[in-house]
Amino acid sequence: MHLNSDEKVQIFEKYGKGKTDTGSPEAQIALFSVRIAHLTQHLKSNHKDYTTARALKALVGKRRRLLDYLIKKDINRYRAIIAQKELGIRK
């Protein structure tokens, strides 16, 4: 993976509740979004990499399930994470 631990800490700090908050839905959604963007760029130049395409679909599904969870639990947190334009989530 292209992210090192310092970059992950920055993501968790920005979208989670702190540096060590790795389990909140917002932090996980942000991390998945960065990974999805990276895999999408990879697939643009390697369109026959079917294993990566499968992994990308799985990540998109995981992110979608977390977003659905947030809708059910707290609609305001969902709206806040969707409003983050740098994550690239459309809804």
Automatic annotation (TrEMBL):
Keyword Ribosomal protein: yes
UniProt-listed CDD domains: Ribosomal_S15p_S13e
Keyword set, alphabetical order: Ribonucleoprotein, Ribosomal protein, RNA-binding, rRNA-binding
InterPro entries: Ribosomal_uS15 (IPR000589), Ribosomal_uS15_bac-type (IPR005290), uS15_NS1_RNA-bd_sf (IPR009068)
PROSITE patterns to which the protein is assigned, alphabetical: RIBOSOMAL_S15 (PS00362)
SMART domains referenced in this protein's UniProt entry, alphabetically: Ribosomal_S15
Pfam family of the protein (one): Ribosomal_S15
GO cellular component, one term: ribosome
Gene3D superfamilies (alphabetical): 6.10.250.3130, S15/NS1, RNA-binding
Superkingdom of this protein's organism: Bacteria
Record keyword NADP present: no
Record-linked NCBIfam families: S15_bact (TIGR00952)
Job of this protein: Forms an intersubunit bridge (bridge B4) with the 23S rRNA of the 50S subunit in the ribosome. One of the primary rRNA binding proteins, it binds directly to 16S rRNA where it helps nucleate assembly of the platform of the 30S subunit by binding and bridging several RNA helices of the 16S rRNA.
Family the entry assigns: Belongs to the universal ribosomal protein uS15 family.
Subunit structure: Part of the 30S ribosomal subunit. Forms a bridge to the 50S subunit in the 70S ribosome, contacting the 23S rRNA.
Family matches, as PANTHER family: RIBOSOMAL PROTEIN S15, BACTERIAL AND ORGANELLAR, SMALL RIBOSOMAL SUBUNIT PROTEIN US15M
Protein name: Small ribosomal subunit protein uS15
Gene: rpsO
